[in-house]
Design brief:
The protein is an all-alpha fold and 407 residues long. Among the domains are: 218 residues, Rhopdopsin 7-helix transmembrane proteins (Up-down Bundle), CATH 1.20.1070; 66 residues, no CATH class. It is 59% helix and 1% strand. It has 13 helices and two strands. The protein has a two-stranded antiparallel sheet. The chain is elongated and about 65 Å long. The structure holds zinc ion. It is a multi-pass membrane protein.
Length: 407
C-alpha cells in the first residue's frame, strides 16, 4: 500500500481530492483528522481512491464504497442497465458481511440463500416423514402408512400429505372412493383401508437416490448462486471461479431434475431409463465443459448461455411426452406432468427475463436495488424447483405403491 500510494498530508490546511463524500463535505483537515492516503488503482484502468484512516497507532480501516457501473473493472460489467450500488474488489470478509448490507446484489444473494434453506428443510422433512427405501409387500406398507398418517402433525404434515394424497395413495384412494363413495371417512382412512385390503403384491425396492439427487442438485445450485453473487466482486479470479460454480449449479439442477422423472417413470423399462439418464448426464458434463471457457461469460453471449441451459431443459419434453404416451391414463402421470409443465413455465419465464433484462432496460437505474431481472429470475427458479420437488413426491408415492409390474 505505502510504496504504491501517493500520500497527501497537510498539517494545517489541506484540500483533499477524493471521491469519498464524507471527505468532500469537510475538505479542510488538521492534525486531528485522519491521514488520507490516496491513489491505489483498483480494477484495471478504472481507479478508485482508497481512504485509510490512521487515527491511532497505525490502525487502518479501508472504507468501502458502492460504485457506479462506469467505475467498475471490465470483469464486473455484466449489465449496464443497473447503474449504481456496485461493490468492486472488496476483501473476502467484507464481501461476505455485505450479505447483511444494502447493495445491488443483496436480494440476489438472499433469494437463493432462502431457497437453499427451504430445500434443506424439505429434504430433512422428506427423509424423516416419507417412508424410506423398503422391501415389503403392500400390506406392510399399508400398516406403516396408516401409523404414519395417524401421527402426522404440523409442518411435517405438508410433506407426507403431499406424498400420500398426490402420490402413493391416489390410486388406492380413487378405487376406495369408487367402491364406497362417502365423505364420512377421511382420505387417510380410505387410503389405509384400501392399501390394507389390497392383496399382497410382489416385493418392491424403490430406490430413493434419484429423488435425493434432485434435492442435492437444487441445493447445490442455490448455494453456489448465492456465493457467486456474494463473492464474485472480490477479484477477477474469484469472479471466474464463482461464475463457473454458478453455471455448474444450474447444470446440476437441470440434470438432476431428470433423475426422478426418468428413473421412476421408466422403472420397468431399463433401456429407456438408461438412454434418457445417460443422455442428460453426458449433456450436463458437456455443458459444464463449455462453461469453463472464458468466452462463455461475455455479456454478448447472454443469449447463448440462456439457450444452452434452455435446450437442456427442453430435452426433458421427450421423456415427459413418452411418459404420457405410455402412462397417460394414470393419475400419477397426469399430476407429475402438470407439475413439470408448471416448472417449465417458471423456468421459461425466468430465462426470458434473464436474457431480455426486463424491466431495468426500460428504466436504467430505477431497479438497481430491487426489482431487476436477475432477482425475478431467481424467484422463478426457486418456484420451478419447488414444483419439481412436488412432482418428485408423487413419483415416490407412485412407485412405492405399485413398484414395477415386471419385477
Ligand atoms: Zn443469479
Amino acid at each position: 500500500m505505502a510504496s504504491s500510494s501517493t500520500v497527501t498530508l497537510e498539517k494545517t490546511t489541506t484540500v483533499v481530492q477524493s471521491h469519498n463524500k464524507d471527505v468532500e463535505s469537510s475538505p479542510r483537515t488538521t492534525m486531528k483528522t485522519p491521514l488520507l492516503v490516496k491513489g491505489r488503482k483498483i480494477g484495471g484502468d478504472v481507479g478508485e481512491d482508497v481512504v485509510v484512516d490512521k487515527r491511532c497507532c497505525g490502525h487502518k480501516h479501508k472504507k468501502l464504497e458502492l460504485v457506479s457501473y462506469d467505475e467498475l473493472p471490465e470483469f464486473l460489467r455484466h449489465n449496464e442497465f443497473i447503474v449504481d450500488y456496485y461493490r468492486s474488489e472488496w476483501p473476502v470478509k467484507e464481501a461476505l458481511l455485505s450479505a447483511f448490507s444494502i447493495h445491488n446484489e443483496t436480494i440476489n444473494v438472499w433469494t437463493h440463500l432462502i431457497g437453499f434453506f427451504v430445500f434443506l428443510a424439505l429434504t430433512v422433512c422428506a427423509a424423516t416423514m416419507v417412508p424410506m427405501e423398503y422391501e415389503a409387500p403392500h400390506y406392510h406398507l399399508g400398516t406403516s402408512m396408516g401409523v404414519a398418517m395417524a401421527n402426522i402433525t404440523g409442518k411435517n404434515a405438508v410433506v407426507l400429505r403431499t406424498y400420500s394424497t398426490d402420490g402413493a395413495a391416489v390410486v388406492v384412494a380413487m378405487k376406495a372412493l369408487q367402491r364406497r363413495p362417502t365423505n364420512n371417512v377421511s382420505i387417510e382412512a380410505e387410503v389405509a383401508a384400501g392399501v390394507l385390503s389390497s392383496p399382497p403384491a410382489a416385493h418392491h425396492r424403490v430406490t430413493r437416490w434419484p429423488f435425493y439427487a434432485y434435492m442435492c442438485g437444487a441445493m447445490f445450485c442455490l448455494l453456489m448462486s448465492s456465493l457467486c453473487h456474494l463473492l464474485a466482486c472480490h477479484s477477477e479470479h474469484a469472479s471466474y471461479v464463482f461464475l463457473r460454480l454458478d453455471y455448474a449449479g444450474i447444470t446440476g439442477l437441470i440434470v438432476t431434475s431428470f433423475y426422478p422423472l426418468v428413473y421412476y417413470t421408466f422403472l420397468c423399462d431399463p433401456f429407456y431409463q438408461s438412454l434418457y439418464l445417460g443422455f442428460i448426464t453426458v449433456s450436463g458434463a458437456a455443458a459444464v465443459a463449455v462453461s469453463l471457457l472464458p468466452v462463455f461469460e461475455r455479456p454478448e453471449l447472454r443469449w447463448a448461455r440462456a439457450g444452452l441451459f434452455a435446450c437442456m431443459a427442453m430435452s426433458g419434453l421427450v421423456p415427459i411426452v413418452h411418459k404420457m404416451v405410455v402412462f397417460g391414463d394414470r393419475p400419477e402421470a397426469v399430476i407429475t406432468t402438470a407439475y413439470e409443465m408448471a416448472m417449465g413455465a417458471f423456468y421459461f419465464a425466468g430465462v426470458v427475463v434473464y436474457a431480455t433484462r426486463v424491466p431495468e432496460r426500460w428504466m436504467p437505474g430505477r431497479f438497481d436495488l430491487a426489482g431487476h431481472s436477475h432477482q425475478l429470475f431467481h424467484v422463478l427458479v426457486v418456484a420451478g424447483a419447488y414444483a419439481h420437488y412436488l412432482a418428485g413426491l408423487v413419483y415416490l408415492g407412485w412407485r412405492d405403491m405399485e413398484g414395477c409390474w415386471c419385477s
